[in-house]
Amino acid sequence: MNRSSRLRTNLATIELDVGAERAFLGVEKSARGYAWRERLPPHLRPLGTAISQRHGLPDLMGRVLAARGVQLDDVPTFLDPTLKALMPDPSSLRDMEKAAARLSDAIQAKQNVAIFGDYDVDGACSSALMKRFLEHHDTPARIYIPDRIFEGYGPNAAAIETLVNEGARLIVTVDCGTTSHEPLAVARRLGADVVIIDHHQADERLPEVQAVVNPNRQDDISGQGMLCAAGVVFLVLVATARELRRRGYYAATREPDLLALLDLVALATVADVVPLVGLNRAYVKKGLTVMRARENVGLTALADAAGLTVPPTPYHLGYILGPRINAGGRIGNAALGATLLSTSDPVEAQRIAELLNRLNKERKDIETLVLEEALALADRQVSDDPTRALLIVASETWHKGVVGLVASRLVERFRRPACVIAWEETAFGTGSLRSVPGVDLGAAIRAAVTAGLLAKGGGHAMAAGLTVARDGLAALEQFMLTHLGQAAQGVGDTAHLDIDATIVASGATRELMDLIERVSPFGQGNSEARFALPAHRVKFGKLIGESHIRVILEGGDGCRLDGVAFRAAGQPLGDLLMSASGMPLHVAGHLRLDTWGGRERIELQIEDAADPRAQ
């Protein structure tokens, strides 16, 4: 029996000859309140079949690829994303040649360069990329990360003045700067040049600097707007190395190994939740390979401090390494992450990694307390108005370093945009917003800034930040509810869970895991394959840790599969699993390869479940 035949035998793939409006396995309302839907719409089923036939892939693989919008001719590149195939000419980005020329000038003249970065993972990785590149060329460089508590986001006049007075002749802003007109004007008045490398949404008017490399500026037609800042920085480094090569600089010195820096690009790409499509897929695929070589002493120390003993995956980047780097900016020293990622000193790396690990534990404790209060406030808002387009909660007792994380949890719970604000001792508050697909928060925040309702604000469609006066909150709330009302209307009521196919417990094989791996890396824009196990008996449910539920799922043939539902205890999903008592449930989730204790096993990370009798 060939591979495709064996897979078809093991997989009970349901081909429901119904429209997208019909429920998958008949689940109209699951434990988490979702309606289950087949991810592959009927009109794309012929494409799935064609992909399988032309490229010699199992039927399941064809379905999964077609459901993710992969076209027939693009399958080889999707399954094997390479920089050679997917990286554009860096000069296709606006101002790229200007940026490369100014950086090359600084390297040849050995001018002092200041790198002004953001305090999140993308900012830390971007800063470390630039510093490592400059240090390879023996160019003096220092990183400056603003304190999010006292300085806020982006360049500020005092910091810029300090950097120039310290001798910086060139300031490179990474993951920030696109809207920083006044602070960057200070650099110009003091005689320093500025190059902006960013990816945030931009207004038509840009700061007057030497170069603004940002694929999301309105006059950029490169088509690379999905890149995070580190992804843009990497293109700048490629362009700069090319310019230096053209000038003959490398006749007397070795060229930098830019591919060795892709571990930082991969980490930023995953942690910043940008779409894993096109060049981003190649960045992450190649970057994970580089990371597994453990050549970056900072990343290696952080992985060791976190107890990561397996080859890193996108999951580990997003949920293990990323939060620890963020912890410094949230409740500690904002520069810790960038310092860790740019150091070549193993002792220093170990010290910082252990500190970030401790800060991350503190961050979790703080987040738990804030989340409990925020959930209560949000619950009240939803009870008062079930159709409310945006949740806005605020408190003077909350730590502003965790408001973004709490906003994400509110979106997860209530399936609508959320804004969480921490009031400061001044009359202002700092807030973070998170959204749902189809609701552009970035545009709404920029409109609020234009309307004079915010002291500061900006961001992406899915995430944004703001600074608002306490006495202006009511006006902002009314503006945002009106602005988002139509787009967000009914979002919470129509939430559904996309299912790729059904499998039985015996179908969760290493062969299937190898196929799933070929479609990775998974993330925003390339959803991980989600399977449903129909009518499997749930046995031996038990609580692990403080909030996780572990069960055994048994199919009709007696074959079993381990399952775990994270943070499900005390929630409807956890209650259903714990009360099943051997009764059959429909269970949905992602397959994981677990190597705990040196023994390899496959388990289902449970996202949802439904009682067939209740449908």
Features:
disordered N terminus, alpha/beta, 615 residues, 18 strands, globular, five-stranded parallel β-sheet
Protein model, in words:
The chain is 41% helix and 18% strand. The protein is built from 21 helices and 18 strands. Strands 3-2-4-5-6 form a five-stranded parallel beta sheet, sandwiched between helices. A five-stranded mixed beta sheet has the order 7-8-9-11-10. The chain has a five-stranded mixed beta barrel with strand order 14-15-16-18-17. A hairpin with a 6-residue loop joins strand 17 and strand 18.
Lateral arrangement of strands in the main beta sheet: 3-2-4-5-6
The percent range for strand residues is 15-25%
Which geometry do the CA atoms define?
globular
The share of residues in helices is: 40-55%
Low-confidence stretches: 1-20
Number of E strands: 18
Q: Give the helix/strand class.
A: alpha/beta
Q: Which radius of gyration do the C-alpha atoms yield?
A: 25 Å
Task: Please tally the helical runs, counting DSSP H or I stretches of 4 or more residues.
Answer: 21
- Mean pLDDT across the residues is 91
Cα distance, first to last residue?
38 Å
The largest pleated sheet is described as: 5 strands, parallel
Short note summarizing the structure:
Helix content is 41%, strand content 18%. The chain is of the alpha/beta class and 615 residues long. A hairpin with a 6-residue loop joins strand 17 (584-594) and strand 18.
